[in-house]
Amino acid sequence: MGSNLITLYRNELYEKVWTVPMSTLCKAYQLSDNGLRKICKKMSIPCPPAGYWAKIQHGQKVPRQHLPTAGLNTLCEYKLYVQEPKTEVITELSQGEKAPKKQLLDVKIIDNLRDPHYLIKLHKIAQNGTDQESYEKRLWMGIDKKSENRALILLNNIFNALEIRRISVFRKPRNEKGMVDVKHEGCAISLSLMEKQSRQKAANPTDWHKHDLVFNGKLEIQISPYLGSDIKTVFLDTDTKKIEDFIPEIVSNIIWGFPYLKEQKDLAEIRQKQEWELQEKKWQEEKRLKEEQRKYDVLKKLASSYSDYIQIRNLLDYISRQFISQINENEDLKDWLNWAVETNEENNEIKDLGFLKNFEKPKSRWSY
Q1: Are residues 312 and 269 in the same domain?
Q2: Among 57-66, 100-109, 359-368, where is mean pLDDT lowest?
């Protein structure tokens, strides 16, 4: 049996730890209760105290411990190998009860196109046009001409049901995946419609072309992206049910999918913000270390310069004592000695506190 590498994100794991009992959650990651607690400790994630879930089951409101702000050394991601097949995290209610089945929304079904949605109306008008503008106004469906009227009635019911609930529907360009985008609160769900195809023996078969793919009249609707394990995203005609029977479920699942997308979007923004904050801290720390190194180099250079100054001064003192009689008799030697003393003093970098300017942070060359 193989294994999969998964990534546990700090914010997501914190939410799961305070939503699902640890004894249940650990099974999803094929860990022991204690093993999952150790991971939480490494990531600075507080865990529910003893008795927390008992109080929740009895209807008590117990406040969560807040997730501490991630520090420079806080582990925000944890890589974990799990055996195949990878199981989804069990999303129980915090009270330990099964989630009640959602009631499908009431959708009015109309079996005609007397008052079509504006996208349906534009599509029908564009069918008669041959210019580029008409071409772009069509709804791109992978269906046979015989199924088009049925498909438009189906879409008309879905679009109107969404618009009534103040959820906007937009046609997608042909070069993008999907037919329309359904948008709400900054999130988008893509809707596609197509007709299934069957293989039939070719009318004029050859060695390299023995079968044709022909439309079989069975329609399929796909919703994307993934909206959680409890939301169905593929609907199609079956031998016992037409896709029209699924219209209330299609509309309901699209609407129920937005909270999931919003949650995922918020989590992604939180992760991105944390990554930016960590990157900023890393940059600041690198700048600090670089500046500390620069000042230390200045200090070493100053020490080396002072050491040279002391050695030259001692040398000149020795010459003055050792050759005092010759110096008094030789003007050139006296002048040289005076020059050497003055030059050494002038090159002394710590004759006053001006040397401290070397330790100040240099101004950016781009500052004005």
Answers
A1: no
A2: 359-368
Phi, psi at 361, each rounded to 5°: -65, 125
* Average pLDDT score, the chain: 85
How far apart CA 57 and CA 137 sit, in angstroms, is: 55
Measured distance CA(308)–CA(316) in Å, rounded: 12
Q: Tell me whether residue 97 is in a domain.
A: no
Domain that includes residue 262, residue range? 118-276
342/178 Cα distance (integer angstroms)? 85
Same domain membership, residue 160 and residue 233: yes
Written as one letter, the residue type at 80 is L
CB 278 within 8 A of CB 76: yes
* 299 in the same domain as 263: no
- What residues does 215 pair with on adjacent strands? 197
Q: Tokens 């709804």, residue?
A: 139
Residues contacting residue 240 through CB under 8 Å, at least 6 positions apart: none
Three-class SS state of 281: helix
Give the end of a domain, one of 248, 276, 304.
276
Give the mean model confidence (pLDDT) for residues 87-97: 40
The residue among 178, 198, 205, 200 whose CA lies nearest residue 189 is: 178
Please count the CA atoms within 13 angstroms of the CA of 117 that sit on its side-chain side. Answer: 21
What's residue 368's pLDDT? 47
